[in-house]
Amino acid sequence: MLGRLCGTIICMSQNKLSLVTGISYLVVFCCAIFANFFVLEGIINNPLAFVSENGLFVRFGVIAFLVAAVADVVIAWSLYEMFKENILSRLSTYFRLVHAAAMGIGVFSLTLVFGFSTDTDILHQIDIFNTIWLIGLFFFGFHLLLLVKIMNLPRWMSVFLVLAGVMYIVDTSAHFLLVNYGLYASVFLALVAIPSIIGEMSLMVWFLMRGIKKEG
Fold first, then answer.
1. pLDDT tens per residue across span 121-152
2. Nearest by Cα to 192 from 175, 178, 210
3. SS3 breakdown of the chain: % helix, strand, coil, rounded to 5?
4. Taking a C-beta distance cutoff of 8 angstroms, is the pair 74, 31 a contact?
């Protein structure tokens, strides 16, 4: 009887952690989409005018990046709690935490755009943010590769996550190794975006369904 009760408690704990992970992933996606495609793209297209005319909007973008970093820490914690029996879980957690820390540090450069009066200076701050984020994604790539080893996922999902992890590492390396990276930027973007969007969004849905199903 006691064994069954303990098993139920463990099951409920796993369920809640899955739900927390899925919801946190959803927060990361929503914040990242808003901050990247509505704020950063707006700044890049018309730096000085966008920052001057949409100051509050830009500040919300900064907060969105910070919230995404916090949610990423929560994901790192919940994944560790779920799979801590695996010897690789701690290492995977460290890699994800480095990624979250890099994002948090990189956001500092975005807060400085309000102090500049030329497009060039503002774009320079965006470049600093992107470079720091790229370094974070390098570590995130290793996190994904380890995560596939830790979790028992459907094979197709594992394939996309492995491809995403490899491409994060390759893309960051290419940024620093290829002098003419700009010539291949669109190719690298596609090679990173396709597996990462499919793999990570599928993972989010997998965690949400896992949590909801076991709650019922």
1. 999 999 999 999 999 999 999 999 999 999 99
2. 175
3. 90, 0, 10
4. no
